[in-house]
Amino acid sequence: MSAPETMRVAIVGGGLVGSLLACYLGRRGYRVDVYERRPDPRRTLSEHGRSINLALSERGLDALRRIDLVDTVMAPALPMHGRMVHDIAGRTNFQSYSAKGDRAINSIGRSALNETLLDAAEATPGVTLHFDVRTTGYGLGPNSLALARGDVLEVVEPDIVIAADGFGSAVRKSLEAAGRMSVRTEPEDHGYKELTIPAVNGEFAMDPDALHIWPRGSSMMIALPNPDRSFTCTLFWPREELEALSTPDQILRHFNEVYPDAVPLMPTLVDDYLADPNGLLATLHVDPWQADGKVAVIGDAAHAILPFFGQGANAGFEDVVELDRCLDETGDDWSLALPLYQQRRQPNGEAIAWLAKENFIEMRDKVASPTFRATKSVEHALERLLPGRYLSRYEMVSFTTIPYAEVIERDKRQRSTVLATLAGVGAVAVGTTIGLIGRAARRGA
Fold first, then answer.
1. What's the distance, CA 329 to chain centroid?
2. Domains identified in the chain, total number
3. Among candidates 245, 250, 307, 311, which has minimal Cα distance to 278?
4. Is 11 within 8 Å of 22 (Cβ atoms)?
5. Predicted model pTM
6. 100 in any annotated domain
7. What 3-state DSSP class applies to 126?
8. Domain shared by 320 and 379, yes or no
9. How far apart, in whole angstroms, are the C-alpha atoms of residue 75 and residue 19?
10. What order do you get walking across the sheet with 144-149 strand by strand?
């Protein structure tokens, strides 16, 4: 086993997860080369229409704290303490994310976060960033990467390769073609498109302390606040619905019918709708996540998920923390660390994929329901009655680092207790019901 300072690690992909991983590995003493196919985003305009603002929560913050980056990253972030639900008549209902109203997820622009992480990686000794370099293939024999810098082709042979190059990972495709990884793509019937609600007289047009949702059954629109006091709106619609609107009259008629309170706030609605591309949504299932202790996938290259729990980047950052922990536990023996990383993270990657899909159904179909609101009130009451013992699914995912797979199991046990108790009380007053649930939970939840 070689010492870190004598080993060269190649990270393919300089996005959020790749740049964070470079910081971690550089701090461990490795010589790290990051190969990114795009130009340096700090020197170019970000790609509009493909961002989907991030909701940074505890798992991501934990990863940033460990390398002293959380204050820098959070400086421009905007906390959102709950959902603001907009009904078809334009009425709003605020739903706190936590029982005490003191928990918040944080809206942050993807490009701003990426630039901060690239700055941190570049400032870390041993880390070298390479932009405008496309990875065209990977070979497992001698650990080799085929790279293209414009018309110039080259091959490098690092000791370790970590693929952080997202949904379309070139490294993963090479391993799949060689029969070393199986990949299943689960496409979603919905796509997405980004729009904008600009600032009004220099101020936010809506409450910035909320993630705004317009749930409409099979579709929805959400809006997250930005530091410039605008909101980034994202449509999540069935793909055929996104493609059906092609003229200004069709667009305005549809939005006036479905999001009447938003239309007056979107002066560039028609131009934005026609100009911005439609994005595709899919879930990625990969097995295994590593090969021969020499190469591994991480972040979206391993587990691209739907964006409906705000956990894509958070889960990827947590991958980095777990890989770092595995290196600690194995004394930087990659032949042991990478299989251990896969063993621990793969089940959690599958778990958050399921949770994200479930949360989409909740956001578009349930949040406007009086029954849903009543259930949330009961959940929050239980969290106050049983602090630390009863945690809602949302609380566990967004505000703890409880492994995602454990979240699912714990949530099942809790929900069965709640449902069994509710079934037994019939029309009893809500206060009495909560008391009964609390006593049942104390007996065995």
1. 27
2. 3
3. 245
4. yes
5. 0.90
6. no
7. coil
8. no
9. 19
10. 134-139, 144-149, 152-156
Q: Which of 297, 281, 80, 282 is nearest to 181 (CA)?
A: 297
How far, in whole angstroms, is CA 304 from its chain's centroid? 9
- What are residue 171's phi and psi, to 5 degrees? -65, -45
Contact 321, 269 (CB under 8 A): no
- Which 8-state DSSP code applies to residue 24? H
- 180 phi and psi angles, rounded to 5 deg: -100, -10
Number of H helices, E strands in the chain: 15, 19
Round to whole Å and give the CA distance between 344 and 307. 22
Amino acid at 37: R
For residue 435, what pLDDT is reported? 54
Per-residue pLDDT at 414 = 85
Instruction: Please tell me the distance from the alpha carbon of residue 295 to that of residue 272, in angstroms, as a whole number.
Output: 41
Indicate the SS3 state at residue 254.
helix
Place of tokens 């703890």: 400
Distance CA 13, CA 34 (A): 7
Say which amino acid occupies 211: L
One-letter identity of residue 232: T
Give the whole-angstrom CA distance, residue 199 versus residue 195: 13
CATH number, residue 191: 3.30.9
The pLDDT assigned to 368 comes to 59
Q: Report the C-alpha gap between 320 and 13 in whole angstroms.
A: 14
Q: Report the SS3 class of residue 377.
A: helix
Tally Cβ neighbours within 10 Å of residue 263: 15
Please give the average pLDDT of every successive group of 10 residues along the chain, which has 445 residues: 85 98 98 97 66 85 98 95 94 89 92 96 98 96 93 96 97 97 95 96 97 92 95 95 96 97 98 94 97 97 93 97 98 98 98 91 65 70 80 92 96 77 53 52 47
Are 12 and 133 spatial neighbours (Cβ–Cβ below 8 Å)?
no
- Could you give the residue ranges of the DSSP H alpha helices within 155-247? 170-177, 239-244
pLDDT at 100: 78
**CB neighbour burial string for 93-113, b if at least 16 within 10 angstroms, e if fewer:** eebbbbbeeebbbbbbbbbbb
In a domain, 94, yes or no: no
CA-angle at 169, arms to 167 and 174, nearest 5°: 140
Residue located via tokens 């340096």: 40
Residues 155 and 192 in one domain: no
Six token digits for residue 151: 């018309």
Same domain, 130 and 226: no
Task: Find out whether 94 and 83 touch, Cβ atoms under 8 Å.
Answer: yes
Domain of 412, in residue numbers = 370-444
